Amino acid sequence: MMKIIAYSLAAMLGLFNSPLLAEGSEYQIELIVFSQKMHNTEVFDQTSRSIHWPSDLTELSAYRQPENTTLDDSYAALSKDSAYRPILSAAWVQPVVAVGLSAAVHIQSSDGNLNGYVRMQQDQGLQMVVDLELGSDLGDDSGNEVVYRLNEKRPIKPGETYYLDHPKFGVVAKVSPL
Question: Signal sequence: where (predicted)?
């Protein structure tokens, strides 16, 4: 009887619709970033880094690391194929807000050549926002570094694996609810 009264009181006070109960859920986010040696006729003329950094950027190390990852076979397959070179493999557990943008997570390779962020957005479904830049080992004709940028917002279904494509590098991503 006391439970029924407590639930009724909570419902009348609107607690089930409060931000405390609607904050969102935790997700395990996994990424593999790799370069690819594909013949390409596209011209890339970006010679400076142009990411617009969000104010809520959080370092990857601030998040809990998952006990198990699911993209290990994908990483192994990329490592074995000479057309690809894995640059970074990362996995973390992050809370995703029920509506709006979650904190942006800083993604950077150990040599600093890959730099950018990933964030989750929840509106009418879950979306992944990826903004990454990869500096080239080769310069342009005037000796300036060429920078390749992958800037994409992709609707995703939790638990499915996605490939984000750029002629010079790519991302394999998976977002799973916990």
Answer: 1-22
